[in-house]
User: Fold this.
Amino acid sequence: EKGIFSLDAPVSGGDIGAKNGTLTIMVGGEAEALGKAMPVLQAMGKTITHVGDAGAGQVAKAANQIMVAAQMVAMGELLVFSKKAGVDPRKVVDAIKAGAAQCWALDIKTPRLFDGNRNPGFKSYMQLKDMKIVLDTAKEYDVPISATEENTKLYQQMIDMGMGELDNSAVVGVIEKLAGVEII
Assistant:
């Protein structure tokens, strides 16, 4: 008799990754089940990683969202900080993205923000939903995540300001309003 297997396989890569079949897929569950599901997953994703037992995929996705939120908030802060201090944020990004600050957010998101494009690749209300999952999971395991708590508050403010349908990088809008300056 064959057993029933289940997998948790959350994804990263947003709308573009879904449309292009280039999602990153984090899989938790039995290796045998993953083997059976692999052709389906390969049709949707470019990077498929078996991270452990059932539930491990969800933990990996939550960890991903901790980093994504941190990058989006830090990017927003550095852009507003630079602008408010009288330095062109574009030049600051050019100066720092070849050094230790280099990251996907600076490479991909800043050109869009500088073009005034805050349309979603990953909607902010979904980022907030994921951040609440992160906070609940951290509480369950008694993990202190104070920076993530602060980042979640910024996403909540964003939603409260009616910007939930915008890209998660548009969190810069909250920081702009708090600082009284716009990056472009």
In short: The longest strand covers residues 45-52. The chain has a mean pLDDT of 96. The two ends are 64 Å apart (CA to CA). Residues 56-84 form the longest helix (29 residues).
